[in-house]
Amino acid sequence: QKKRRAATARRQHLKSAMLQLAVTEIEKEAAAKEVEKQNYLAEHCPPLSLPGSMQELQELCKKLHAKIDSVDEERYDTEVKLQKTSKELEDLSQKLFDLRGKFKRPPLRRVRMSADAMLRALLGSKHKVCMDLRANLKQVKKEDTEKEKDLRDVGDWRKNIEEKSGMEGRKKMFEAGE
């Protein structure tokens, strides 16, 4: 038990030491990022000096507006380039799949469709043949014998009860009795 306690105490001590090191590293990284941000802003964004006269203020606004336009044009150009390259990359990857012979299967949904509808979808307007599968089957006549007919009539007792229930059933029974 003493060894276990010592091992757990050592493990806890190591964990706390590692956490302290991680906290100090995170603080150092945050300070370094802040310094880097300040340097970048000082380099790329000079402090704004507002002129005193109205004429100089209008010129400053025109310069800023021209800068905004140029930045917007650059942004638009880079977006178009990105779209073009992504489309080209997609086409090349599709060609690569085609050359390898491996095709990416699209996710398929189950659709209930008759044979006529399927042929119409595959062949388009060319499909004019009706695929009535039952038309090609042979017609078989079943001979009804008297015995089977009687059994069928007697066997469906629900039908007889439904017919005899209510006033209409009583009327039928009365008329049948006469």
Automatic annotation (TrEMBL):
Primary role: Troponin I is the inhibitory subunit of troponin, the thin filament regulatory complex which confers calcium-sensitivity to striated muscle actomyosin ATPase activity.
One Pfam family linked to the record: Troponin
Family recorded in the similarity comment: Belongs to the troponin I family.
Biological process, per Gene Ontology: cardiac muscle contraction; skeletal muscle contraction
The entry's keywords: Acetylation, Actin-binding, Coiled coil, Muscle protein
Signal peptide from the UniProt entry: none
MF terms (GO), sorted A to Z: actin binding
Record-given protein name: Troponin I, fast skeletal muscle
Source organism (scientific name): Pitta sordida (Hooded pitta)
Matching InterPro entries: Troponin, Troponin_I, Troponin_sf
Coiled-coil ranges from the UniProt annotation: 23-102
GO cellular component, one term: troponin complex
Subunit structure: Binds to actin and tropomyosin.
